[in-house]
Design goal:
six-stranded mixed sheet, alpha/beta, 7% strand, 15 helices, single chain, 39% helix, 6 strands, globular
């Protein structure tokens, strides 16, 4: 991400299990016993009365089925599978081991800081250290010390890391674009007064950006020449993977406005109604494969724990705020219902619902066993 260039920051196609030399050079932790960790997690889960690895895998089956099968080439996807974070909500597809491997030519992403690769920094300047220090060696547009879920997902498909749509300097959009913005919400900021530090690039704006990109990218491509190589082919839009990871900031902002838990839950129908509008808009423009990610355990976020008075009874044994996590779980349950509804309504689409809440909470719950091996997962 350092020098401006029209070349992609393209990851290697191999599995993201780095050798110790590279990890030590980048300042991250090392772990060379790849097989021990899953076994320890399964044992720890059983001791704590939570589902074991075997229980998760029997429920998950053989792969991430979008009507095709993803190879587990990245450490990220391996752990999503291990912690039971996927629900196969699909239309008109049979799940089986004979499916050919997915060949998504592009990814188009919508979201907040959990998946922003440079949208907000294109507007307001770089994300200062420690952001970016453990992998990129400096600011890389991400509000994370290393890579994000979207980076590991792109790598798993053999695709370059996504450039932010708003970043006009040195970007290459031939294999997708990222419309996410750190601090983004589903609801427009005109809906309600939002505190500072939240992005004006709400989901409806991101949807409008995608619509504009859809049209203008093909105008540029059809002109030929150098810029043709920087834009996706027309048929990529129908065969691309569309990822959506947003909603957390709508909930956390409500707490900052001193809303009660019940008041926070009351905004969820409006949030998801707007969420669904974006999915339908993408579908109308040819999008057919969706990766829908729910919100993580917000009650475990340090800034949430620091900002709100909690009684001892409101904090669970892992140090997370129970009421705030209950609101996140309520949102996620309603989001899952929405995915089920959209599956029936948008009959030509395939939906994969990713339970990032369970993945992250399990990492927190088993932190003692996992140590620092999973530091690349950020809340």
């Amino acid at each position: 991400m350092g020098k401006a260039s029209h070349e992609h920051a393209k990851p290697p196609r191999k599995d993201y299990t780095y050798d110790n030399t590279k990890q030590q050079t980048r300042g991250t932790t090392t772990r060379d016993d790849k097989e021990t960790l899953p076994r320890q997690v399964g044992e720890g889960a059983r001791e704590r009365g939570t589902p074991s690895r075997q229980g998760y895998e029997s429920r998950l089956g053989s792969g991430f089925e979008f009507g095709c099968r993803l190879r587990y080439r990245s450490r990220y996807l391996h752990w999503v599978r291990l912690f039971g974070g996927v629900n196969f909500a699909k239309s008109n597809y049979n799940v089986n081991d004979q499916l050919q491997e997915c060949e998504f030519p592009a990814i188009f992403n919508f979201g907040d800081s959990n998946s922003d690769t440079g949208g907000l920094t294109a507007l307001y300047g770089p994300a200062h250290p420690p952001n970016g220090i453990t992998f990129f060696g400096g600011s890389a547009g991400r509000f994370c010390d290393g890579r994000l879920v979207i980076d590991f997902l792109a790598g798993s498909l053999g695709l370059p890391y996504l450039n932010a749509y708003l970043n006009s300097i040195g970007s290459n959009f031939s294999h997708g674009a990222n419309f996410a913005s750190a601090g983004a919400t589903v609801r427009p900021q005109t809906t309600i007064y939002f505190p500072k530090d939240y992005s004006p690039i709400s989901l409806n704006v991101q949807s409008a950006e995608f619509s504009t990109f859809y049209t203008r990218s093909q105008v540029v491509r059809n002109e030929g020449g150098f810029f043709e190589s920087l834009m996706p082919k027309d048929d990529y839009f129908a065969s691309a993977l569309y990822t959506i990871d947003i909603g957390q900031n709508d909930l956390t902002t409500s707490y900052k406005l001193n809303m009660s838990n019940e008041e926070v839950k009351a905004i969820v129908p409006d949030v998801l109604s707007r969420y669904a509008k974006t999915v339908r808009a993408v579908y109308a423009q040819g999008g057919r494969t969706f990766w829908i990610q729910n919100v993580g355990p917000m009650g475990c976020l340090p800034y949430m724990l620091d900002g709100y008075p909690l009684t001892e009874a409101q904090v669970d044994r892992f140090g997370c705020a129970i009421p705030i996590n209950e609101a996140a779980q309520f949102y996620n349950a309603k989001l899952k219902e929405l995915v089920d509804q959209l599956r029936k309504e948008l009959s030509l689409a395939a939906f994969t619902y990713v339970d990032i809440y369970s993945i992250k909470y399990n990492l927190i719950a088993h932190a003692e066993e996992l140590g620092k091996a999973m530091v690349f997962f950020t809340l």
